[in-house]
C-alpha cells in the first residue's frame, strides 16, 4: 500500500526563504497599521481598475474607488487609455460619481469646470476673473500611470514601480496559452465585509482550509500535499497548481467509483465513468485526450494553445498584495479584497468571473448558477450577511472572515502558528512588514 506523503511541495526553482516574523493581530485591527499601508504599500503596486469591454469608445470612462482614493480611466480620441485622480483641480470635488459613464467632456458638477478627455481644462466660468489669465489649457487633471493586460486595465500611483507587464511576471507568460484577451466578464460581484482585507488574502495564500471549508471540492480537485505544487516568485507573487479532474489524495478520502461531479464531466467528454472504476485517478489523462480531440470542434478554440496541465488543472495565481486570478481552461476568477476607506476591520471583496467566448454558447455555469454569456450579465454589490451569494466557494471563504476578525481581537491571541504549506502566508506578511515599516 502506498503511504501518502503529507509534506508540502515547493518548486525548487521558485521557493523563497522566510524569516519567521511573528504575525500578530495588530495588522488586522490597527488604524495606525492601516494608515501605513495606505502610505507605503498601496501606491507601490499596480491596481486592476476594470475591463476593456467598458472602454470601447472615446469618452467611455470607468471609475475605481479604492479606500479613500478614486481613479477614473478614460478612453482617448487616439484610442489610448489614460487614468486620472477623480478630483477636480478647482476645489477637489469628485468628478465622476458612477461606476461607468460615457461623455464628450468631463464636467465638474460644482462650478462646471470642463475638461477634455485628455484631462486638459477646456472651459471655466468667468475665465477673465483669474489673476494671470484664464486657467484653460494650463490646468490638467492629475494623472496616474495606466496600462493594459489581456482584457484588463490597470493603474498605478507611483512612477518608480516596474512597468505593468514586468510587475505581473511571470503570469503574462504563464497564462498566455489561455488566450485571455477576448474573455468576457460575466459576473461582476462585490460585497462589503466586516473584516480586514488581509483575512481573505491569507485564505487565498493557503489550501490548508480546503478539507474543512470546502469539503465538496475534494471530489474533483486534488488538494493532496505532494500533488499540489506551490511556487513563490522573487516579485512577491506566488502560485499554486492543483490537479483537477481528480479526487484528493488526502489520506482520509477514498473512492473506487468516479465521484460526482466528475462522472458528469466525464460523460460530457464522451467518457464512460464506469471504465474508471478503481482507477479514478486515470480519468484526468482521459479528459486531456478527449479535450484535445473534441474541444476545437465544440468551439473551445483556445484549447490548442493550452498545455495538458492547463486543460485540466487549476492554477491559482496570487499577486502581491491583494489580487488572485484562479484559472481553469473555461473560467477565470478574479478574487480581490480592498481596504475600507476608514475602518481597518472592514473591507470590500470583489469576485469577477470571465469566460472564453464559444461559438453557439448562450449560457455558462458560474459560481452562482447558469448565467447568460455576456458582459456583466450579473453585476451587483451587496453586504455580507444579507444572504446574497458572491459564489458558492467564495461564500464559504467569506463565512470565516467575521469570526476570525473577532478572534484576532482577543488578548489571548499571540500570533499565527503555521505549517510549511502556509509558507506563502508567512512570506506575504514579511513582504508587507518590509513595506509598511521599512527598516523594521
Ligand atoms: S470643485 Fe470642480 S468646478 Fe469647483
Ligand atoms: Fe477557500
From TrEMBL:
It comes from the Bacteria. Its cofactor is Fe cation. The keyword Iron applies. The lineage of its organism: Bacteria, Pseudomonadati, Pseudomonadota, Alphaproteobacteria, Sphingomonadales. GO terms for molecular function: 2 iron, 2 sulfur cluster binding; dioxygenase activity; iron ion binding. PROSITE patterns: RIESKE. Residues 48-155 form the Rieske domain. This is Phenylpropionate dioxygenase-like ring-hydroxylating dioxygenase large terminal subunit. Transmembrane segments: none annotated. It comes from Novosphingobium chloroacetimidivorans. Keywords: 2Fe-2S, Dioxygenase, Iron, Iron-sulfur, Metal-binding, Oxidoreductase. InterPro entries: Rieske_2Fe-2S, Rieske_2Fe-2S_sf, Ring_hydroxy_dOase_asu_C_dom, Rng_hydr_dOase-A.
